[in-house]
Amino acid sequence: GSLLFHISAGYGFDLRYTFFSFISVVHIFLPCKYAAELKMMSTETATMIYCSGWEKVISKRVAKVVPFLVARAQIPVRIKFFMFEYNMELFINILRTSYSMFTLLRS
Asked: The pTM is what?
């Protein structure tokens, strides 16, 4: 948002400022993207454990542990910071807020 304001205020196009703004967006995007992927993969883990062929293992200990593993794997893994959960919704909300600030500063 501040890059757009910088350009629209008549300061001109500065490549360093543009690069810094782009890197800032990427810096916010990557943790959100990978946290979303981690959550998605963690929800698939229960199915992967169940389909792993555990019933063919001779050990009774494995047969006793698998239901607990499946039950625990059904709870998705989330990365949280205080009250914020990293995911793509957080990234979109940050971009929307940034654009709202830009329109507020511009008017």
From this structure: 0.71
